[in-house]
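Many groups now describe folds with learned vocabularies. In that spirit, our science desk offers one protein's residues alongside their backbone shape tokens.
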Amino acid sequence: MGNPFVHVELMSNDVGKAKTFYGKLFDWKLEDMPMSDMTYTMIKVGEGTGGGMMKNPVPGAPSAWMAYVLVDDLKAATAKAKALGAAVMKGVTEVMGAGSFSIITDPTGAMLGLWQVKKG
């Protein structure tokens, strides 16, 4: 498969409650990572695709899971998605030297993250 899902993220309105629930439900290892303006909780699952949890950045929006797909060229993939009718919700953004992401909404209204691993 050319572009696998590589990360799944929970944007939650109550991160503490979500951590308690999912930690007990699945026995995930949850690791808080302080960032400049928030705390991001990494979800370590062992085998398979891991993820993270964060406070929902969209005021008034419900808690929701979002998947990220791996791409080789984030700028090109984001532009291609836009040309195919997607809306770019968040442009290309770097994540602390790990890589970069963008968030699109497809023509049906579904959100999807695009992820590129940092090169070199």
